[in-house]
Amino acid sequence: MSTSKGLPKYKTREEVDFVIIGSGAAGGVLARELSTNGFSVVVLEQGHYRTAADFKHDELDVIFKNQLLNHPGWNDPQTFRRFETETAEQIQGEPPPAYYARGVGGSSVHFTANYWRFHQSDFKERSLLGPMEGTGFADWPISYEELEPYYSRVEWECGVSGQPGPFEAPRSKPYPVPPMPVKSSGVLFEKGARALGLHPQPAPLAILSKPLNGRPACVHCGFCMGFGCEVNAKSSTLASMIPQAEATGRCEIRPLSTVFRIETNEAGRVTEVVYLDADGQEQAQKARAVIVSANGAETPRLLFLSESARFPNGLANASGIVGKYLMGNGHSVTQAAFEHPLNEFKSVQVTRIVHDFYENDPARGFYGGGGMDARPFLDSTPILHAMTGLPHGKPGWGPEFKKMLRHYFTRKMSVLGSTTSVPLERNNITLDPNLKDDKGRPAIRMTYMDHADDLAMATFLQDRAVEILGAAGAQEIWREPVAGGTVQAHLLGTCRMGDDPATSVVDKYHRVHDVPNLFICDGSSFVSSGRGQPTMTIQALAFRAAEHITRFARNGEI
Amino acid sequence: MTISKSSRRNFLKSGGSVMGASWLAINLPLIVSAGETAAHNKESGAVYNNISVEESREFSALVNQIIPPDDTPGATEIGVVYFIDVALGDFMSSAAPMLREGLADLQQKTRSAYSNIQRFSELPFEDQTKMLKSVEDTAMFGTLHFLTLCGMFCLPSYSGNRENAGWDLIGFDHRHAWQPPFGYYDAAVHGQLPDEGNDHEHV
After folding, report:
1. What's the rounded mean pLDDT across residues A311-321?
2. If contacts are CB pairs under 8 Å, which of residues 60-119 in chain B contact chain A?
3. All residues at 6 or more sequence positions from A420 whose CB lies less than 8 Å from its CB, including other chains
4. ipTM for the complex shown
5. pLDDT at residue A94, rounded to an integer
6. Minimum distance, in Å, between the CA of residue B58 and any CA atom of chain A
7. Which of A387, A390, A419 best probes binding to B when mutated, by most B CB atoms within 10 angstroms?
8. What's the rounded Cα separation, in Å, for the pair A390 and A407?
9. pLDDT for B113-131, tens place per residue?
């Protein structure tokens, strides 16, 4: 595991064109695009610079010791509460409420890689459906049509396997490589869904079914969700974008660099980015412009930490809505067991999805929509299966427990329902007033409780999952209770984009309304949540942002 | 203790939290970072580094209650006690005092219930089960349960899951590459359409 790589090495006291904070799904794309377009770029990443050779099939280390999640240098805790009336607490031993990977490539390294494009409706549901009182329900300032070319670029340049589905919006190009080979969970899900008159389709995945762009095809090892890919078939920015950024000779990836402040001058412009290096020493990188791509929790935290006399509520927070309208996507899980072995521990998680319930339907009696997929979920690795994969209400130890472990591991699958999240001001990221990390930075405090409509939609999808699994011939079906989320891997909406500076943080080009050389591009830019798979849209936004930022820079408009 | 009481209550948050991220809301005792410990004490009969021989005897009985031997090996034979020895000297060291305290309580309870018995491990299997049911809601038992499952199914380099015996038990086959068909239900699909998945270029 290296701590630095390649050339160039920029001097911190010499101004580079761009500093990008974060090397994940968005930061990796922006680094590649801006360096390719001729700009000097420094990417500051708080985690390690791991590569494929560093990733292992070690469930204990990755899943239970949070190898890819932990801060590499020190303890960086978080707190959680459901409502603002409660006192947030750090719960020892639980996964962090804001659940993201640290390291070059960010969470695109460990993600499951479901890559659904948004539909046209996702960008304009407020206009289509009317207002929702007491919420931040709003249209995006851009349309699907404006974003479509960049979805195609993600599919071809990052690498997405798939084939067009029956409900998707118009596309300008086919997928570059065919869908992944179907698994038993996909076959059963498809059979059950068709029996009910639904329209199952192959899952689009950012995992290569065939070689593309010099990268190999998936070898179906099964250590996928939560793990880093050992052959670079998963289209993380670590595998796809970062090597191309470095190959330009103009992009320096600087790992083990934890940013804690963005400095501004009297004119209200960003001047430099202050961070702690691998040795805990304070450094500051000068830049002509800064792009924050730190994720929907770290981005607002950094903006709050960058407060000044000129920006007393935090940088970019003239509107007062930085950190607010956090959306995480609601979920429901339905487990099932079948007569014969599925062997879901092999290959990728998802091979079939159902989008029949994607759009809002007033007949349901609540707002929302969602997608469903078939997957092993927690049964893809043995320890998680033993802890979470067995039917409820049976002995948890002893002879019968052992028999169940032997019976169920190969015969299990789950259906995951993923839903919209209503944007609510009360769901947010703030600085914890009491808890700090080892270096004195206030901890991330998450306040989150799903809207009743989101939970209703999750339950609706679970009801459909039970029907589908029954129609597929499951011997046993059981439901995981639908409840408010306490751990969020999708960190969306906390610096939403919009045309009105009073109700948004960035404009449609990801430029902060009142700081001309500061841009924010990651999940925080979202105005609505989509239906549960946000990374495809995060990356399309990043490609689009890079094009406009390049134009501004070349025209002297930054 | 039922599934929902042990694996779930002790180690998992229920419901939505299992979902958001979330294949993983594990409610473990705090785990600190740790490197992989060498497996030099993996061989049967090797000396333990972090537990006494007497403790190893009690742990053997306890983990065999969780995964008992039958026509297939139990937890002890699969190496779980060696794994516990490694874990308590490494990433679970902070849990060691609590485990020892819980063990002492269990021995006290055992002596109170059976006047002629000194140790839990001396009890017949059925009496051990009865005794353990009285402490199954304790942190000691929850942690031991967690360690047993980790020791059953971890990489053998952690000294558990000897010769993949834990994986063999449940049908997990650890390889670095697979080709379709993967399971019973997709075999027919891939059989009819051999070009769909069997021509993958492995690296």
Report:
1. 98
2. 65-68, 70, 72, 91
3. A329, A330, A367, A368, A369, A370, A453, A454, A457, A528, A529, A530, A531
4. 0.94
5. 79
6. 16
7. A387
8. 10
9. 999 999 999 999 999 999 9
Cβ contact B24–A378 (<8 Å):
yes
User: What are the backbone angles phi and psi of residue A300, rounded to the nearest 5°?
Assistant: -65, -35
With an 8 Å Cβ cutoff, is B126 touching chain A? no
Q: With an 8 Å Cβ cutoff, are B18 and A480 in contact? A: yes
pLDDT at B151: 98
* Closest chain B residue to the Cα of A187, Cα to Cα: B186
* Distance in angstroms (rounded) separating the CA atoms of residues A101 and A46: 10
Tokens found for residue B4: 């929902």
pLDDT one-digit tens code per residue, A267-306: 999 999 999 999 999 999 999 999 999 999 999 999 999 9
Residue of A nearest to B203 (CA): A216
**Nearest-angstrom CA–CA distance, B41 and B59:** 16
Q: What average pLDDT is seen over chain A?
A: 97
Q: Which residues in B lie closer than 8 A to residue A377 (C-beta atoms)?
A: 23
Query: Which tokens is B115 given?
Result: 């006047």
pLDDT, average across residues B128-145: 96
CB contact under 8 A, A377 and B23: yes
The structure tokens 């932990």 sit at A70
Cβ–Cβ gap A182/B152 under 8 Å = no
The letter for the amino acid at B26 is I
The reported pLDDT for the residue numbered A4 is 53
Q: Which residues contact residue A153 at a Cβ distance below 8 angstroms, ignoring those fewer than 6 apart? A: A540, A543
